[in-house]
């Protein structure tokens, strides 16, 4: 059986109230999600002894998210990751979006991305799990993007400790769309993730230039610190003398997933915390995944329960189409046409190893 409860999460500056939804299953897993930014604020998963810990980074209060969050737990859109110069050409027209990263790039949808808006929310218990349905209508011209985009996201907690996320979107004009989820995980619940073992199912990644925009090349991971085909401690080579790691202060790269079939759900990554035995698997229909090792965390943010978030306090695995796709002719297009339906699915599955 499943349980869903709703609590007030506080008021936005314009007076609207945000809610906090708690989805629980019988296997000891629960997840808290607010309709502000669709943010996963807590995710409790059992360890090998059955003891649960909260395995995502975040804040205790809405005010802390409003004060500035590095996208902790949030839904990301209209275009996740970076667009070079915030600029792209579509059907002969040039679009200039906000350059909200160091005045060089457009990052994660702009100044007010989908992580900072209030979504309409409805809950439902189905035979598949406890569900939270979120809807947001992004106006034509919002953050500089063309077309009114209607976005529907369903989070579902299943009986077998899986958090499933489904994204759908439709538009009134051709527009780029690349939606993702920005949870920072720490399978130990606190401290550094450097001892946690990362496997990413990819033979190639997309190297970046000095402002973290893909060069357009696909590089082999073999023989480099980027080779995570076999599980490797995140900290083992995060500081290795590799120019790509120096640029980003660690891993902050898009992996080109090995996929049996384009667009099909497949295993993208598996992370194991040897201490607690917690295992996270990420499956996605997307062709890429951004592995970010929490390089910009620097001890200035204090999160839930007074935990200070130092560098590498969490990692992100963000399923996605490749960064800067609107400007990269050899990357798959992320342009959604009117009449078509954008669709993407991902799961975060929790289990334990001995
Ligand atoms: C993404 C980016 C990172 C960083 C984080 C948020 O993962 O790739 O470079 O911007 O979001 O801090």
TrEMBL record:
Its main location: cytoplasm. Monomer. InterPro entries: Aldose_1-epimerase, Aldose_1/G6P_1-epimerase, Gal_mutarotase_sf_dom, Galactose_mutarotase-like, GH-type_carb-bd. Coiled coil: none annotated. One of its GO terms (biological process) is galactose catabolic process via UDP-galactose, Leloir pathway. Pathway: Carbohydrate metabolism; hexose metabolism. GO terms for cellular component: cytoplasm. It comes from Gilvimarinus xylanilyticus. GO terms for molecular function: aldose 1-epimerase activity; carbohydrate binding. NCBIfam families: PRK11055.1. Keywords: Carbohydrate metabolism, Cytoplasm, Isomerase, Phosphoprotein. SUPFAM superfamilies: Galactose mutarotase-like (SSF74650). This is Aldose 1-epimerase. Beta-D-galactose binds at residues 81-82, 182-184, 252. The lineage of its organism: Bacteria, Pseudomonadati, Pseudomonadota, Gammaproteobacteria, Cellvibrionales. It catalyses: alpha-D-glucose = beta-D-glucose. It is found in: Cytoplasm.
């Amino acid at each position: 059986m499943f349980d869903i409860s709703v609590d007030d999460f506080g008021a936005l500056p314009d007076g609207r109230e945000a809610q906090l939804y708690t989805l629980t299953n019988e296997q000891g897993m629960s997840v808290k999600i607010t309709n502000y930014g669709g943010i996963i604020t807590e995710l409790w998963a059992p360890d090998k002894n059955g003891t649960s810990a909260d395995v995502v980074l975040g804040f205790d209060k809405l005010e802390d998210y409003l004060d500035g969050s590095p996208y902790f737990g949030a839904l990301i859109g209209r275009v996740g990751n970076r667009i070079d110069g915030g600029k792209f050409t579509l059907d002969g027209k040039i679009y200039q979006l906000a350059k909200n990263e160091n005045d060089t790039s457009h990052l994660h949808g702009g100044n007010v991305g989908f992580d900072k808006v209030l979504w309409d929310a409805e809950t439902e218990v189905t035979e598949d799990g406890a569900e939270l349905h979120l809807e947001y209508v992004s106006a034509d011209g919002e953050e500089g993007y063309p077309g009114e985009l209607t976005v529907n996201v369903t989070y579902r907690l299943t009986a077998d400790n899986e958090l499933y996320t489904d994204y759908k979107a439709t538009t009134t004009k051709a527009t780029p769309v690349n939606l993702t989820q920005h949870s920072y995980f720490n399978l130990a619940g606190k401290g550094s993730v450097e001892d946690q073992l990362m496997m990413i199912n990819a033979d190639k990644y997309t190297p970046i230039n000095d402002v973290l925009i893909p060069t357009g090349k696909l590089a082999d991971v073999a023989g480099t610190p980027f080779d995570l085909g076999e599980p490797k401690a995140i900290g083992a080579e995060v500081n290795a003398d590799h120019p790509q790691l120096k640029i980003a202060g660690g891993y902050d790269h898009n992996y080109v997933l090995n996929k049996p079939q384009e667009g099909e759900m497949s295993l993208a990554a598996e992370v194991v915390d040897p201490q607690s035995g917690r295992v996270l698997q990420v499956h996605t229909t997307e062709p890429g995944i951004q592995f970010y090792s929490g390089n910009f965390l620097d001890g200035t943010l204090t999160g839930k329960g007074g935990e200070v978030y130092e560098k590498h306090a969490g990692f992100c695995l963000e399923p996605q189409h490749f960064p800067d796709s609107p400007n990269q002719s050899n990357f798959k297009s992320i342009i959604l046409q009117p009449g078509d339906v954008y669709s993407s699915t991902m799961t975060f599955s929790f289990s334990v190893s001995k």
